[in-house]
């Protein structure tokens, strides 16, 4: 890549698709399904393993550093939950790698000379010490490249100790089987990247493997997958808690509205009872007044009849007296 291309890529990574007002680049958003979400999170196996023995070629989805910058800016404002898509992608990839590792182990078991369990355990110990030596050498080289010479020297001293242990383990392994069988190369499958490791590999070969881009790339992918699983679990738990809190708030609001309606209904019921009571009372008052008026009318009518009867008797008596005087 030329210096100009590197500078352009760096600007894309820092400023995103809108860095120079180019609207054509903004037609594809980072939220588009065609964009690789693993690339946005910097964990796509196509990027990590590029240039290794297991180079996967170009990813079927869009990779663009500017889109990654857009995503990083947007993710600070809201949770986009792209970790779930990336986790599914890496889980599928690692599952396929583990399947190939198991197949390689099966082929080795079928092709290599079968040995007893005791000899197999001794060979396994030599393999483990080889792995320790390779990791330590790779770490020492990395520290030396970073300028940390003192720490690198300490690691190399540890390597010498492990080499002594390896020599003893090889002697035990050699004495447990015929010389012809010992010279045969015993292979082992690396659990991380599924590459083959030899029992008699020298330190340089071991350092190249454990410090190589392929092995370190698989370590990076597996560590990123563990990190994504943890992040997704935390975000799902947070979402569940937020959902539960909103549900509780809705329940409280619903109970509050219910109590308010109940109080309103109760006040209306009491008001209606008072209205009915006053209406009943006024009705009783009217009935009492009507009965009182009827009673007064009846008493008046009876009094008038008694008065008329008395007047009639008086007139009859006066008439009789006049007739007697005339006689």
Global shape:
rod-shaped
Quote the beta fraction.
under 5%
Structural class label: mainly alpha
Mean pLDDT reading: 79
Main sheet characteristics? 2 strands, antiparallel
Q: What is the CA–CA distance across the termini? A: 169 Å
The radius of gyration computed from the alpha-carbon positions, rounded to a whole number of angstroms, is: 51 Å
Spatial order of the strands forming the largest sheet: 1-2
Explained architecture:
- The protein has 327 residues and is mainly α.
- 75% of the residues lie in helices and 2% in strands.
- It contains ten helices and two strands, in the order H-H-H-H-H-H-H-H-E-E-H-H.
- It has helices at residues 3-15, 37-40, 45-48, 65-75, 83-111, 117-145, 149-175, 179-183, 203-210, 213-326; strands spanning 187-189, 196-198.
- A two-stranded antiparallel ribbon has the order 1-2.
- Helix 5 (83-111) packs across helix 10 (213-326) and helix 6 packs across helix 9 (203-210).
- The radius of gyration is 51 Å and the shape is rod-shaped.
- The termini are far apart.
- The mean pLDDT is 79.
Brief digest:
By secondary structure, the chain is mostly helical. It has ten helices and two strands, in the order H-H-H-H-H-H-H-H-E-E-H-H.
Describe the secondary-structure layout:
Elements: H1 3-15, H2 37-40, H3 45-48, H4 65-75, H5 83-111, H6 117-145, H7 149-175, H8 179-183, E1 187-189, E2 196-198, H9 203-210, H10 213-326
Antiparallel strand pairs: 1-2
Helix pairs in contact: 1-4, 5-10, 6-7, 6-9
